[in-house]
Amino acid sequence: MRPSTASTSLRLRAVGIDTDAENVAYLARGCAACRIDALRAASKVAIRAEGALDDAEPLLAVLNVVDGAGIVGADELGLSQQAFVLLGLPEGTAVRIAPAPRPASLDGVRRKLQGEPLDLAAMRAIARDVVARRYTRSEIAAFLVACGRDDLERDEILALTRAMLETGERLDWREALVVDKHCIGGIPGNRTSMVVVPIVAAHGMLIPKTSSRAITSPSGTADTMEVLAEVELPMERIRRIVERERGCIAWGGTARLAPLDDLLISVERPLALDSPGLMVASILAKKLAAGSTRLLLDIPVGPSAKVRSLADAQRLRKTFEHVGRAMGLHVEVTITDGSQPIGRGVGPVLEARDVMAVLANDPEAPADLRAKSIRLAGRILEFDPDVRGGDGEALARDILESGRAAAKMAAIVDAQGRRPVPLAPGRLVAEITAPRDGRVTGYDHLRLARAARHAGAPASPGAGLDLFVRLGDAVRAGRPLYRLHAETPGELDLARRWCEADPGIAIA
Amino acid sequence: MRPSTASTSLRLRAVGIDTDAENVAYLARGCAACRIDALRAASKVAIRAEGALDDAEPLLAVLNVVDGAGIVGADELGLSQQAFVLLGLPEGTAVRIAPAPRPASLDGVRRKLQGEPLDLAAMRAIARDVVARRYTRSEIAAFLVACGRDDLERDEILALTRAMLETGERLDWREALVVDKHCIGGIPGNRTSMVVVPIVAAHGMLIPKTSSRAITSPSGTADTMEVLAEVELPMERIRRIVERERGCIAWGGTARLAPLDDLLISVERPLALDSPGLMVASILAKKLAAGSTRLLLDIPVGPSAKVRSLADAQRLRKTFEHVGRAMGLHVEVTITDGSQPIGRGVGPVLEARDVMAVLANDPEAPADLRAKSIRLAGRILEFDPDVRGGDGEALARDILESGRAAAKMAAIVDAQGRRPVPLAPGRLVAEITAPRDGRVTGYDHLRLARAARHAGAPASPGAGLDLFVRLGDAVRAGRPLYRLHAETPGELDLARRWCEADPGIAIA
């Protein structure tokens, strides 16, 4: 094939296009390299430095052919941002290209598509190739669909977890007991981590919490914490903070802990695939990579939660425990009530307000957020061999009521970098009222979350909603159910129209 | 959400990047529109002209965020080539963008993933959205994987065929009998269409053959015909040629006959999915779109062919017949011997040489290519109500031996545009020899095809291989099995090393 001849030498050029999980190579149409057999738009090419050995691992990228001027010249090979970084060669380097070999691990994807379970070797090979960006987004989608269709067997979930862990970095805190807390998500508000971490750290246990930003929700723990302090911290700084304070609440994206998971999620999210097996591997791999040894996992169950029946929750619990045990992570699952939001605020600023009210022992603080946080913190405190079983909750309450949790939170916020000017809730408001008299009988979590997003959360931190009613409350027609906060009239209007069509709270 | 406010108006710009089946939108990082919640690299955006109604169907595109200068400015929205054409607005038009709604037809993909069959309405909705480029390549992959996994039921294949046909143009030849011939492929050489078409057209039947170029093989019928004549002809010219000559052998890609199929193939090919159901829909939709009323379909069966057992071939035959009948296309299937290549040459020039030798009644012409072509042509001639059943083959032989087929081929070549200077086989040659004494017991079609591609076919038309031995022949160690032809030393060397590792011909 022509690529093997010397005639296709090209000069490397960085093209400042962010193509996310997929490497893209840009070639000028009509250039000599473009005439290579088997190269066409959207085919995959293999890229090596001129003079590199044939058996050196090439960079693979999807080919985009360029007609316009200014992006690549006829003797240039352009690479998208991530691909350029991955190749690691300076601009102007002589490179050659060839049709890409099919990643051998795709045979595993194919077998999985035919219904065969994948073993550890196959999962490892897939993980390695995905992380090295040798898969196109379509190939990643094929893998995800293959995994999601009949869901994964337990041993496959274990193999995927291991493969995820092996392809990323892993933190080592050099302590025997490193605790963590995670919720599978789906419940508006529910910002318990920001109460639990200061309680547990105040007790002296190591709880280096790395959190995510919102993907489809109105706020992730990292977004809410960012209302108070910096969360995008270099790993070394996180390490120093945790050494001094025993805890942190930082964004996990800066550490390259589970790059495979990040790549899978970037394809999975738009496809809206729903695979419990992938979720278990994703959560446990991140926790293991973060160096946790004991994890308290919150599975809320409710009619509009991610898990809708106790039977499903029990099944999921067993899978978490099984995989965790095999990987050396003690997982304790708590199945909680997911029938209504936790706390009043939904959106970064409004949630942070609730958290700080709980920590300040404000009598007006949301009782449900306080109670749930104490319960979860108590369970974690009992991971400490010096805390007697059953004493955790009382201890957690004491740490909170004594003000030690609030002091610890202040210290963590200062260490991470306190936001100089506090943020306020969005100044534009609209109240959404009950359409009739009756009692609150249910919440549509997705609808409420979308309402908060329409209002601008999390991009506008002050946007979101403030809930006034709880399950079972009597309401009167025309009285407010919740208040929308936004920062622009357009967003307020969009959210209001959304809520007026259906407020997401059932009244009967 | 911010997109609904007026602040995100952008000026449209054409970015000359060919992104194949996927629309891509380019936005400068940090521009106002980029700050829209839910917009991030690789998410999908909806694009409308400023002032367009909210319920106007937007163009959907995958977002690539641009850091470099020169591609898009801060107030511009760039679109890749196909996306720009599809939007159909001039550069500089004010447009606004918003997070893309999820195409509703993805619910069908999701149901299919869960094992439910898809009905015509669901297939139609998917087809419409794919052709309008509302699917990302990942979403198309999810659909293909869903279809391929347990393969499609007959009614689903029928629904997909209908949906493919409805989303493209359709030729109407205004005659009751329009014949065609198709082979499902996979056999090196086997260039029977170029003998069959002149025989059938010389008899006066209408056979407007549109062929494909090689995708993974060393040559498609269009590539081989291009050795002799132009094949990329505008539809109007094909129509005039067919009116005068009753037949043609042109490339089918210039007519927009089955755009859905083209899009599916562009994603399916790199994934190397293997779904008989998708293949049946793809072939029949193209034939129906080309205006055929009667189709002879060649299914070669052999140990390294696409179909490996007679039982599989029979099953495939029934599916073709069933779907064809329901769509008003009479399909006659012929199951042929696919245990060895047909003809001697593999690669455009070498195959064209074999075809012309058969048409010229050259005694040295490959007997298998001649015999198979006469048999197939005979079956098609019997579609003519004036030809008695069983007489077709004798009639075909007579048309060939009388020189009328050769004369018809000359007329078709002249009408399409004869290549002024004939092409010769690649001037660099290497003989691949038998490693031991014995008899030829089998052919590895894929390996021989790869050998011809390594030698440069089809991009170098003279490249390929010339076979000297047939199944059952006695061979001596060191005597040639075939000769490689190439046009560059690098390609010859690559092909030779490939063949010397394993010649693709079994000797025992």
Defining key terms:
four-stranded antiparallel β-sheet; 19% strand; alpha/beta; 508 residues; homodimer; globular; 17 helices; six-stranded mixed barrel; 19 strands
Let me know the average pLDDT of chain A: 91
Strand content of chain A: 15-25%
Assembly state of the chains shown: homodimer
The main sheet of chain A comes to:
6 strands, mixed, barrel
Q: Name the structural class of chain A.
A: alpha/beta
Which radius of gyration of chain A do the C-alpha atoms yield? 25 Å
Q: Which consecutive residue ranges of chain A, at least 5 long each, have pLDDT under 50?
A: 1-7
Termini separation of chain A comes to 72 Å
Count of separate DSSP helical elements of chain A: 17
Number of strands of chain A: 19
Shape of chain A: globular
What is the share of helical residues of chain A?
25-40%
Which chains share the greatest interface?
A-B, 71 and 72 residues
Biggest sheet of chain A, strands in spatial order?
1-6-3-5-4-7
How would you describe what is shown here?
2 copies of one chain form a homodimer. With 508 residues, chain A is α/β, with parallel strands linked by helices. The first copy, chain A, is built from 17 helices and 19 strands. Chain A has helices spanning 81-87, 106-113, 120-131, 137-149, 154-166, 193-202, 221-225, 235-245, 259-271, 276-289, 310-327, 348-359, 367-381, 392-401, 404-416, 445-454, 489-501, and strands at 10-14, 17-18, 24-28, 44-49, 59-66, 76-79, 94-99, 179-183, 207-211, 247-251, 294-301, 330-337, 345-346, 428-433, 438-443, 464-467, 474-475, 480-486, 505-507. Chain A has a 6-stranded mixed beta barrel with strand order 1-6-3-5-4-7. In chain A, helix 11 links the parallel strand 11 (294-301) and strand 12. In chain A, helix 5 (154-166) crosses helix 11 (310-327). Chain A is globular, with a radius of gyration of 25 Å. In chain A, 58% of the residues are buried. The model of chain A is unreliable at 1-7 (pLDDT under 50).
